[in-house]
Amino acid sequence: MVPLAESPTRTEFLFLPEWHQTAFYILMAFATTVCVWQVCKCAFHWMSGKPISWKPDYLRGIIEFVLLQRKVRSSRPLSGAPMHLLIFYGFLALFLGTTLLAINKYSPWKFHHGSYYLVYEFVLDWMGLAFVLGVTWAAGRRAFSPPRGMKSDFSDWVTLSLLLLLGLTGFLVEGARMNLVPRDFDSSAPIGQWIGQALPQLTPATYVGLWWIHVVLVAAFIAWIPQMRLRHILFAVASAAGSDPSAKMGRLRPVTIEEVEATGKIGAESPSDFSRWHILSLDACMQCGRCTEVCPANAVGKSLDPQKVVQDIRSATRTGTTVVDAVSEDALWACTTCNACVEACPVLIRHVDLIVESRRSLVAEGRLSGTAATMLRQLQSTQSAWGTQPADREKWMEGEDVPLARDLAAQQKTFDTLLWIGCAGAVDPGAIRTSKAVVRLLKKAGVNFACLGKDELCTGDPARRTGDEFTYQQLADSNIQTFKRFGVTRIVTPCPHCFNTLRNEYGDFGGDFEVIHHTQLIADLIEDGRLDAPEFSKGEVTLHDPCYLGRVNGEADAPRLALGVPSNQNGLETPLGQWLNRAQEDGNALAEPRHFGRKTLCCGAGGGRMWMEEDTDQRPSARRAQELLDTGASKIAVACPFCRIMLDTSVPKEGSQAIPIEDIAEIVAKANE
Ligand code: SF4
Ligand code: SF4
User: Fold this and answer.
1) Helix 154-180, helix 80-106: angle, nearest 10
2) 8, 271, 501, 613: least CB-packed within 10 angstroms?
3) Residue 465 C-alpha to ligand 2 middle, in angstroms?
4) What CA–CA distance (Å, rounded) separates 582 from 587?
5) If residue 514 lies in a helix (H) or strand (E), which one and from where to where?
6) How many Å apart are CA 434 and CA 665, to the nearest integer?
7) How many angstroms separate the CA atoms of 397 and 386, rounded?
8) Whole-model pTM?
9) Which is the closest atom of ligand 2 to the Cα of 295?
10) Domains of the chain: which residue ranges?
């Protein structure tokens, strides 16, 4: 064929008689109807839930989590992330390209020619290749090295085959067109041109056959989307758009008395007790296994599998079973609420909300027994998770001359900062060492502070995360009244669990204060020159980031700054980041464990697990302790009394692997003696 000298463009429906075009429209209308009908069926399930209580920021959700793929980019940086980015941006470009083509054909604007057309062809050619490479990568990875937590079934292979065939037949149709009608400007789509030249001379009938194969595959794809895990193409967009813009990992939804009176329920007994958005988010699950891969309970062989929790509750929305019948009670109690799953989930599913709401229902039905139930009872009777009497909260202060808020109030003196000790800090021997070290540091730095002593009650965090919402609310209310009575405006605490609930949850009950973790204050005091930073040799110290500090509240810098490490080192929580950390020249370079910062690994104490029986061969703390020991450091720095207690049970006390555990406050206090 002779190249035609004309403005670059292409002819739509090349070689296709009118009735083929009519058949095409009927097929597409049918496929779209099937798709929409299935989406409507899903929407029917979403609407069975409670109305959402927030105002979504639709645009921000779509830009941040869909277009910019923020969550996808932050996990599996060497495999899942680049693979998904190739598929996503490739698919998006092909989708937009097809949409532009339709606009050009069916609207008065005829722009599909000239330089625009050349750029269009170039971009779609390469993005099509990205799509095909991404899908091939996904299939190879699934076949030869699937990540832990990823399961495959027949429909996954059908899905991947369909996607691959879509990409390949798209290229074949383009190549066939160039084979039959070559143009001077075909080089703007070099892959299509290469395929066209590699093919033997085709006939128009062959082209039409290839075109129909591609179109039928597209129609099958559209009709089948809601049935495949690929439905996340639709539902992840809806999930991101409708998500709560003010949602925080560390904030649980308060239950109100009015709500209980209206529904007769506390928490989620059936899926319809979740919000509509939560039910919608279940449909967005792409079964990627990221949540299961990072779950500390699953990793030590417990029955908890967050991906399965999501799928089981999703099934329950269809079958009408209760949440507990769909998900085992064992699995629900195994969660440490570490939020690793929430942090990893690319479609914003909030597993911890699902689990805690289910626990609330179990607790309300009296289905919590054993040591955790004992903890709740003693919390109700003594307002201490340890079951100690209020006066015992001041025993640790003996010999320390700790200023008390009530004494200062009696003398009509004020204080700037309330040192909130927490239940552990008042009674656990290791945590008491931290409390004393913090007191010494505050005194040395000249901070005007006070403690509450016996006026301090448990924040209620263990009750809330175990599912006893109203015990939590009573404690929160009492503490807030105490804060108001003493004019508290700023709170510092060495406990990340107290820190989280005081900072993120007390506001829902009228308690708005500045709340900081002790490592944040220490870091500030070092920066101001009021305290000296400790010194240690490279690799001597390793740091265990607490989940409720590093991940839930995104604070990984302060513990490092308090240890005199310049910053969160390179901020890269990836193998490259670890390598760069280790390559740091001299002094104060931490021996970072495999999981650190936002991606830290749970010690197993959160979510009330501290008070639940644990099989010795299923301890998350043992796994974490081994990771820390593997760094070769000779000291473990911690920043949480709960982590300290858990690691203490798993780090050897004797032998070649014996290694001390010290809170950062103790390490800094020694440097300031
Ligand atoms: S819940 Fe989220 S992280 Fe887990 S499998 Fe589904 S999409 Fe992946
Ligand atoms: S919060 Fe932690 S323990 Fe609970 S399901 Fe998620 S990853 Fe597992």
Assistant:
1) 50
2) 613
3) 12
4) 11
5) strand 514-517
6) 6
7) 17
8) 0.92
9) 7
10) 18-240, 385-526, 530-671
pLDDT in tens, 190-249: 999 999 999 999 999 999 999 999 999 999 999 999 988 889 999 999 999 999 999 999
Residue identifier of the C-alpha nearest atom 8 of ligand 2: 295
So what CATH class is 385-526? alpha beta
Helix (H) or strand (E) holding 325: helix 323-326
Quick one: tokens of 504? 């993120």
State if residue 289 touches ligand 1 by the CB under 6 angstroms criterion. yes
Do the beta carbons of residue 403 and residue 450 sit within 8 Å? yes
* Tokens coding 72: 């996808």
d(CA 378, CA 371): 10
User: Which ligand lies nearest to the CA atom of residue 307 in the structure?
Assistant: 1
Instruction: Provide the token pair at 314.
Output: 């999703």
Give the architecture (CATH level 2) of 18-240. Up-down Bundle (1.20)
**At CB < 8 A and 24+ separation, what contacts does 141-149 make?**
141/79, 141/80, 141/83, 146/289, 147/76, 147/79, 147/80, 147/289, 147/290, 147/293, 148/289, 148/292, 148/293, 149/289, 149/290, 149/291, 149/292, 149/293, 149/295, 149/298, 149/305, 149/307
Listing DSSP states for 389-426 in one string gives -GGGGGGGGTTT---BHHHHHHTT---SEEE--HHHHH
- Residue range 608-639, pLDDT digits in tens: 999 998 888 889 999 999 999 999 999 999 99
C-alpha 289 – ligand 2 centre gap (Å): 13
